[in-house]
Amino acid sequence: TDPVVIMIAEHAGRALVGRGPQWPTGRYSALAGFMEPGESIEEAVAREIFEEAGVRVRNVRYIASQPWPFPSSLMMACIGEAEDDVITIDPHELQDAMWVSREDVRKSLAGDPSAPFLSPPHYAIAHTLLTAWVEEG
Q: For 10-136, where are the alpha helices, taking DSSP H only?
């Protein structure tokens, strides 16, 4: 089993979501990445968000986990507090990233055509993570 962190950064009531170049048009989701040997969940969340989007986070909190069979991963969902909202994406990791409000995420999760992005599918832990974040607010 490979440990994977999947996470959103939060800043001023907004969540950071990103998209990979191979994803369906308009689809955005939580950021994710494999943990390194000897790394804590919190350290992996902070490292991955910084590597992918250039955002520094602290006060990482665990939300949920989900086994993922491709390729035998355990995904651990977390939320971290961003120090600021300046995004500097790594184009090798992400095609785009943006900050979205709780209302934006609510619309997306509900399938509202006016939502600024398509949410992850309901069976994905990213959907669970975004739902938990919306409900916190």
A: 41-53, 102-110, 125-136
Tokens, residue 73: 């991963």
Contacts of 80 (CB under 8 A, 6+ apart): 7, 8, 9, 10, 42, 45, 46, 49, 57, 58, 59, 60, 61
pLDDT, average across residues 70-89: 94
Predicted confidence band of residue 137 (pLDDT cuts 50, 70, 90): confident
Residue 75 phi, psi dihedral angles, 5° rounding: -95, 130
Mean pLDDT of 33-39: 96
Which pair of tokens denotes residue 30? Answer: 């939580």
pLDDT, mean of residues 18-35:
95
| Closest to 102 in 3D by CA, of 68, 79, 74, 125 | 79
- Are the CB atoms for 133 and 105 separated by under 8 Å? yes
Residues with Cβ within 8 Å of 86's Cβ and at least 6 positions away in sequence, in order, are: 54, 55
Sign of the four-CA dihedral 116, 111, 73, 9? positive
Reading the block at residue 106, the tokens are 């609510």
> pTM for this structure?
0.94
